[in-house]
Amino acid sequence: MSSEYLFAHKHILGLDHLSVPDIELILNTAESFKEISTRAIKKVPVLRGKTVVTLFFEPSTRTRLSFDIAAKRMSADTFSISASTSSTTKGETLADTARNIEAMMPDILIMRHPSSGACHYLAKHIRTSVINAGDGTHEHPSQGLLDLMTVKEHKGEISGLKIAIIGDISHSRVAHSDIIGFSKMGAHVFVSGPATLIPKKIERLGATVCTTMAEAVSDADVVMPLRIQTERQNDPLIPSFREYATFFGINRQVLQTARPGALLMHPGPINRGVELAPDVADSAQSVILDQVTNGVAIRMALMYLVLGGK
What are phi and psi of 215, to 5 degrees? Predict the structure, then answer.
């Protein structure tokens, strides 16, 4: 890819609207930023004078802190608003909240919202750059990108790899971003889980649905279990966590059916003993903490690029 390639996106709303060259540029930019986090003084002036606002309507530890650290490492000024402290609790609409924030002239607004499409809606109503930090069950683009970065870092390339994603596919915005991202980059994505947690027509995103977990994990280069998102389910969609762990939990025996040297990933938070056995979560194959580290670099790259960085 040419070093003169222009990143033409003002917003990061999902991986569906990013091209392969876009994704490659993001990953390469993130790799160059990653070194900053290893320095004694972890700060560069590339976003000095810029203002970044995080607006989270759902709980978050990794994503919110990661964006905050990423902005500060580039010397941006950061401000955080949560749902409990926003005027939406007083009846203000999301658009009015965003317009009031925009009137204070921030450069980037990073939002997480329980409604799918909320970030797209916001981007149509304000001029400030919007980065989607997770919208309902739709997408979580920065998580998808950090997963791509982690796999590329450990495997050298993404094209041709078999990616197995196991669990609550229906309610996982991470799964949706990963399916889109890995498929675009030439990997083969296989998904499995309880039938009640596999959405109809998920194949349209690029995934192959397996009727058994064994089929999905067999000879996989990457195995990624997902948390059961009970907070997004109106009614229980599995009999019990114990039964789920028996049939879909990733343990050492299951992982041994994957390709030798397969990576174990998880978007977090982990429910140990449910989707993932504790000893496997802490094994040498686990790159879960590498995902967290790469999340800072990816989010640095996204903020830098949407503000015109080259």
Answer: -65, -40
Distance of alpha carbon 146 from alpha carbon 152, whole angstroms: 10
Show me where the domains of the chain are located.
Answer: 15-140+292-306, 141-291
Comparing C-alpha atoms, which of 271, 169, 272, 263 is closest to residue 222?
Answer: 263
pLDDT in tens, 95-135: 898 999 999 999 999 999 999 999 999 999 999 999 999 99
- How far, in Å, CA of 206 to CA of 162, rounded? 12
Q: How far apart are CA 51 and CA 59, in angstroms?
A: 22
- Integer Cα distance of 190 and 181 in angstroms: 13
* Confidence band of 2 (pLDDT split at 50, 70, 90): very low
CATH of 15-140+292-306, one of 1.20.1050.40, 3.30.300.30, 3.40.50.300, 3.40.50.1370: 3.40.50.1370
Q: Homologous superfamily of 141-291 in CATH?
A: Aspartate/ornithine carbamoyltransferase (3.40.50.1370)
Please enumerate in sequence order all residues whose Cβ is within 8 A of that of 16, keeping only pairs 6 or more positions apart, or say none: 139, 180
Helix 20-34 vs helix 288-306: angle between axes, to the nearest 10 degrees? 110
